[in-house]
């Protein structure tokens, strides 16, 4: 089995956020940073060179593969602000309908700008995802 390539680093979260261009994307990243810190109760750490993560959990799959990953996080990518809601969206259909303008994949939420979404709904989605992950992997953490 291969190890997960993206690992926590000692890179400065503040320096990373300060390097984001354009300014509007940097401002959105700062807002998400504050929101995720508030909701998770965790300090941010860099995962790899472009993901800001909060908290950590240990997962074990039925296949035997296991590892550690962030509870939630984000990355200000070129195309969009990518938020990592590790629980997926199975139990969030109602919240997704209220969120605003976004795209998503299995556990990634893609947002062009925060002004396109309802921040209260986003906060609830982050909280819900963290709760689901903590329950799902409680026996391993």
Overall description:
By secondary structure, this protein is of the alpha+beta class. It has a single domain (13-140), classed as Aspartate Aminotransferase, domain 1. Helices cover 35% and strands 23% of the residues. The chain has 4 helices and 8 strands. It has helices spanning 13-18, 23-40, 93-99, 119-136; strands at residues 44-47, 51-54, 57-60, 66-69, 72-76, 81-85, 103-104, 108-111. Strands 1-2-5-6-8-7 form a 6-stranded antiparallel beta sheet, covered by helices on one side. A two-stranded antiparallel ribbon has the order 3-4. Strand 7 (103-104) and strand 8 form a beta hairpin. Helix 3 runs antiparallel to helix 4. The protein is globular. The mean pLDDT is 93.
Layout of helices and strands:
Blueprint: H1 13-18, H2 23-40, E1 44-47, E2 51-54, E3 57-60, E4 66-69, E5 72-76, E6 81-85, H3 93-99, E7 103-104, E8 108-111, H4 119-136
Antiparallel strand pairs: 1-2, 2-5, 3-4, 5-6, 6-8, 7-8
Helix pairs in contact: 2-4, 3-4
């Amino acid at each position: 089995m291969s190890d997960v390539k993206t690992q926590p680093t000692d890179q400065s979260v503040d320096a990373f956020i300060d390097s984001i261009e354009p300014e509007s994307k940097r401002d959105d990243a700062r807002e998400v940073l504050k929101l995720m810190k508030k909701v998770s109760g965790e300090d941010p750490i860099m995962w790899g060179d472009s993901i800001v993560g909060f908290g950590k959990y240990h997962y074990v799959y039925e296949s035997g593969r296991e590892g550690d990953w962030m509870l939630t996080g984000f990355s200000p990518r070129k195309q969009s602000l990518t938020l990592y809601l590790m629980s997926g969206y199975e139990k969030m259909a109602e919240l997704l309908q209220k969120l605003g303008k976004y795209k998503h994949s299995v556990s990634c939420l893609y947002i062009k700008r925060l002004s396109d979404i309802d921040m209260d709904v986003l906060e609830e989605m982050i909280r819900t995802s963290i709760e689901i992950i903590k329950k799902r992997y409680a026996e391993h953490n």
